[in-house]
Amino acid sequence: MSPVLAGVLQLLALIAALALAYVPLGDYMARVYSSDRHWRVEKWIYKGIGANPNTEMRWPAYLRGVLGFSAVGVLFLYLLQRLQGHLPGSLGFAAIDPDQAFNTAASFVSNTNWQSYYGEQAMGHVVQTGGLAVQNFVSAAVGIAVAVALVRGFARSRTGELGNFWADLVRGTVRILIPISVVGAIVLVACGAIQNFSGIHSVGQFMGGSQQWNGGAVASQEAIKEVGTNGGGYFNANSAHPFENPTP
Q1: What's the rounded Cα separation, in Å, for the pair 230 and 163?
Q2: 0.85 exceeded by the pTM?
């Protein structure tokens, strides 16, 4: 099969998949953001953060929620990188330099996807899974919440009520992004992507010699990276690396 034909077939397969998924998935997402019911796990989260999910917000309150949550995310991810050398599972990597740590934190929280580091040479397991992967979920959820609030703004132009940011954030994460990512991670593992917390080890090369590679929870992070259109690959080559993408 020629590369051109293969590319055309891949494009047609993607279009067909989108055509089959957009109605049921779109209807499901509409129900998620319009439902009056809260799942038990969501109630625990609301209680933990002290939020009332039933309170309607106008745009100033909704905006404060978005900016406040994002500011805390930037600070948390920045500190996680700066303290990496003292964290378990650091793989011996030192703390990230202040300017790069801030750049990475701001990039991941704002979902602008600028990966300016070599993942396999800079980030340990805790920063990858507890920092970058978490932001891959919540930054995408924040983006969806803002889009939903915009739609509500047009639909409720007379009242000015945009819903509740905390409810939108939690529901987008718990009901949409996590389930899809769990399925995606299982598929990736079945295809050969790695999912572990192993340390650095030597891998033999076909032409002789060896190369140092570290393991990681790659499949789970790859799934949300693709679903949320995020950066944050475990390796510098990102999705071109065979540990992230074993069967193109």
Answers
A1: 26
A2: yes
Tokens of 76: 């948390």
Q: Which helix (H) or strand (E) holds 52?
A: none
For residue 85, give both structure tokens.
Answer: 């050398």
Where do we find the tokens 């991670």? Answer: 185
All residues at 6 or more sequence positions from 160 whose CB lies less than 8 Å from its CB, including other chains: 58, 59, 153
Q: Is 53 in contact with 38 (CB distance < 8 Å)? A: yes
Q: Tell which residue, 66, 59, 52, has the closest CA to residue 156.
A: 59
Tens of pLDDT, residues 187-219: 999 999 989 888 777 777 777 777 777 888 899
pLDDT band at 73 (very low <50, low <70, confident <90, very high): very high
Assess contact for 175 and 195: CB atoms under 8 A: no
- Tokens 């600028």 found at: 114
Please list the residues that pair with 204 across neighbouring strands.
Answer: 210
H or E element, residue 201:
strand 200-204
State pLDDT tens for residues 74-121. 999 999 999 998 988 888 889 999 999 999 999 999 988 788 888 888
Distance in angstroms (rounded) separating the CA atoms of residues 157 and 118: 47
Gyration radius (Cα) of the chain, Å:
20
Q: Is 14 helix (H, G, I), strand (E, B) or coil?
A: helix
Give CA–CA dist 118/140, Å, rounded: 23
